[in-house]
Amino acid sequence: MTAKKRILLIDDDKDFLFATKLILEKGGYEVFLAEDGKTGVEMWKSVAPDLAIIDMMMETWGEGFSVLSKIRAMDTGKDTPLFMLSAVDLQGPYNSFEPPPEFPKVNAVLQKPVKAEDLLGYIARELGGKKMS
Amino acid sequence: MMNTPTPLVLIIDDEPSIRDGCRQALEKSGYAVLDAEEGDEGIKIARDAKPDIALIDLKMPGISGMEIIEILSRDVPDMVLVMITGYATIVSAVEAIQKGTYDYLPKPFSPDQLRAVVRRAVEHRNLKIETRRLREEKERMEKSFITFVSHEMRSPLVVIRQYIEALKAVAGDRLDRDMTEIIERCGARIQSLETLVEHWLDISRIGEGSFAWKKEPLNLLQLIGRSTEEMAPICEEKGILLKTDLPDQLPEIFGDQEGLLRVFTNIIGNATKYTPENGRITLTASSDDYYVTVRISDTGTGIPADKLPFIFEPFFRVKGKEERQRGSGLGLTFCKRIMELHGGEIAVASTEGQGSTFLLKFLTHMRSEQTMDHSATPIRQF
To answer: Which residues of chain B does A60 touch, with a Cβ-Cβ cutoff of 8 Å?
Structure first.
């Protein structure tokens, strides 16, 4: 049996973490949780996950971006798939996330709440695993 | 009575006997008193000490009482002004009050009369300050409420929907039909609550002037195309014919693509709710040099004449409480605000039993450049 792929989830909402963890575990992944950006970056180093999902807006707006930049700046984080989560105004494109050209690569931006099948689908696409039904 | 510090009264009068008399009477009643024998000195003291009340003699050598009143009501707005006059004519009283005095005291006056007038003036001042404080508080609350709603109300809704997703993922295969339906219905209700919050936020932002919108040249034919494309599936599902009857060309308008798209989809969406199967929703458009007019007609149940004036009001429902909660109750309010933001208009005509027609009137590009830049609507772009 191959080892489970590891996913790091960084979000300051405990309930969101728990709900999303259940979905990811159902999808067959091993899940690590961090409740703030700083812990998230530390866990990245110790866990070395295969993929990370980062909330854009934690205690301060933009904390997610700084976490993303820090991870991308590390050797281990250069090519790892990273997803951003956004709950910013869902209606209309005004505030949807459009990274500036020099911004570190984001593999997907997901709107909160995210449907279980969509989430697992995006992850499977990045990690090459088969999609769980 | 509020627990306030000793009220400070300034007397500006050239007669020493009046100044001394007032000082004695007021100090005996617990007021602190300052005085000045002429206008310039009085204005200087008032600006520095900011007294609660100023008693001003109307007729003095040098700068006149009227001028003092004008200057002080501008420079020390919280101070309540009372004029003292030996020549209490209606004309001078009216003029002084128009310039901002609160009351007047005709000479000669007794200490009791003086104290009565000053007491009323202090009460007036307290009310004035309290009113302003409350108004500022209200404005602050309105502002922070928008932020509060967007963060504190939206995040729990998002989390609940995420839990519902988790529940379906974890237990989906073990749930029977009833359980699944319960979960689906919970999800739908949460989602409509989210929509309500979104609409409410948008409307508040428009009112507050912080709604983010782009002004760009737009082709309404393209916008109508996008909206009918978006609404086609729901019409098909309900067995309603959605058709357009449009000219080949329309003048360009000026506005926010996404906001206006939502106006169209909102009105078409509304029409689908009140139009029976095999009904029709038709979009037509016409234009002249000044306006482009789009009509969205349906063959639905229509709106009673007595309800028509209210349908753009927030949370107004044509059938009152009996009506099933079908939408946020803010859709048409949103449409109206967006149209107003664009310098346009929205109107409705309806015959019960036959259908309704919504009319959207847009300024043409040329026209809107002339008017919108001078409009009073605060426009902020991000």
So the answer is: none
Which listed CATH number (3.40.50.1820, 3.40.720.10, 3.40.50.740, 3.40.50.2300) goes with A6-126?
A: 3.40.50.2300
**Closest Cα in chain A to B157:** A113
CB proximity A89 to B under 8 Å: yes
pLDDT by position in tens, chain A (length 133): 578 999 999 998 899 999 999 999 999 999 999 999 999 999 999 999 999 999 987 766 667 888 998 999 998 888 899 999 887 554 433 445 555 666 778 888 888 889 999 999 999 999 985 544 4
Least CA distance to A120: which residue of chain B?
B169
Question: Does A86 reach chain B within 8 Å, measured CB to CB?
Answer: no
- The string of DSSP codes covering B252-279 is -EEE-HHHHHHHHHHHHHHHHHHS-TT-
Give dist(CA B180, CA A81) in Å, integer: 33
- Give ipTM to 2 decimals: 0.82
3-state secondary structure A19-31: HHHHHHHHCCCEE
